Amino acid sequence: MKFWKEHTGLRALFIAGFFLVGLALVIYGWKLTGKLSGLGLMIAGVILLLAALMIYNKPFEGDKGPGL
User: Fold this and answer.
1) What is the pLDDT of residues 31-50, one digit of tens each?
2) What contacts 24+ positions apart, CB below 8 Å, involve 2-10?
């Protein structure tokens, strides 16, 4: 997608934001041992970490190497 290739600053901001908030949610949810809300926070954190990874990989989706 051309949008993410053209707006690298915005992409970096989203990646950093999702990564930091996701990591914070996973760590905070881990501290809530034995509570269901802790599990929910950790799942939300993992979803944000995966979203950061998805945004990172978005500009490279259409690029296929030779012979691939």
Assistant:
1) 998 899 999 999 999 999 99
2) 4/55, 4/58, 4/59, 5/59
Question: What is the distance between the terminal CA atoms of the chain, rounded to a whole angstrom?
Answer: 19
Query: Token pair 């799942």 is at which residue?
Result: 43
pTM beyond 0.70: yes
Task: Give DSSP secondary structure letters for the chain.
Answer: -HHHHH-HHHHHHHHHHHHHHHHHHHHHHHHSTT-HHHHHHHHHHHHHHHHHHHHHHGGGSS---TT-
How confident is the model at residue 1, as a pLDDT? 59
C-alpha span between 55 and 41 (Å, rounded):
21
Q: Which of 56, 52, 53 is nearest to 17 (CA)?
A: 52
